[in-house]
């Protein structure tokens, strides 16, 4: 990873000269007389931000994070449990009972799709995150599209294929540009926006012939290309009710000026002007609420965060659903968590209990932004094991800066090193 240079610090300081730290947290509920031990599952920037927000909750006793990362451990935001096998439901249940955990927050999608929530809820442990059946909204794009068809949720026209020849014939009929998607989880890399027929056919071969995405790509969705502006929309769901979170927007291309390949996210900001109050109401009524009611009707009630990737169509100005994620987005989670003023523990417990109806969230009136520092070569083949320097200096460069870690570890000398692609995150917040 590149050293966090004085030039970057100077630039960051100029960006946030008028920043302030977030105000004190306000609590939305009186049900916080007994403090709660919370376990966060995951070890990325999203989980670091969640630990940071949970620790600030008045009703939080302590935060544990499994496996966590070096930055989470050193920040004091949580105690990291690096040896807990988070895909082993019995091990997680045993740990929760031993430590008196009264709320589990599952960060990444993979444990959700694998059914960790099912096991924890069956054991009587309140868990924020959907069941495996409801997590299919992200785990299978085909499932999500069928739900849209059945419950009249606006989305791009599509067809699903397992045979490459018929997929290519459909592509030829539709023409380019066109979008090719792997059905399953592909770490954010299973989508090709093909501007030519050749690109589209190559994407089909990559998934269905070469098997580049394994089982995730054994079925592909070919869908129409939507022109407009993308937007991220987040809602908390308790199985029957949903409440919107504040708006946020991320930037996915790796290079300055929106250039280069897509990544998991190189930065984000909140609020996002594209999500107006009018648009928020339309999205809730036409996309989020029908999804909540639809999953409930299908026997797989959704509890957790619905993260809708939207396209605001250029022609109509109306939103269409591109895809669902079933957890907080990253890096959007980071800018949302630093703006949240409500007691996050109580909010998430309310979702687990089916008690979100009538609940309102308090947010800082300021803005927040995050810029990702990534290893050389990311998102392709990137350097590993390089030392990350000047992190303490960065946090002190101006008021209101917080460094969130993803993909970091300690070396033998106790220095931070990069073991993943995108490793450290900063935010600024101002009135």
UniProtKB/TrEMBL annotation:
Reactions that this protein is recorded to catalyse: 5-phospho-beta-D-ribosylamine + glycine + ATP = N(1)-(5-phospho-beta-D-ribosyl)glycinamide + ADP + phosphate + H(+)
GO molecular function, one term: ATP binding
SMART domains referenced in this protein's UniProt entry, alphabetically: GARS_A, GARS_C
Alphabetical UniProt keywords: ATP-binding, Ligase, Nucleotide-binding, Purine biosynthesis
Residues in ATP-grasp domain copies: 145-353
SUPFAM superfamilies cross-referenced by the UniProt entry: Glutathione synthetase ATP-binding domain-like (SSF56059), PreATP-grasp domain (SSF52440), Rudiment single hybrid motif (SSF51246)
Organism: Glycine max
Protein name: phosphoribosylamine--glycine ligase
Pathway: Purine metabolism; IMP biosynthesis via de novo pathway; N(1)-(5-phospho-D-ribosyl)glycinamide from 5-phospho-alpha-D-ribose 1-diphosphate: step 2/2
Broad class of enzyme this protein falls into: ligase
Biological process per Gene Ontology, one example term: 'de novo' IMP biosynthetic process
Assigned protein family: Belongs to the GARS family.
Pfam families on file: GARS_A, GARS_C, GARS_N
EC number: 6.3.4.13
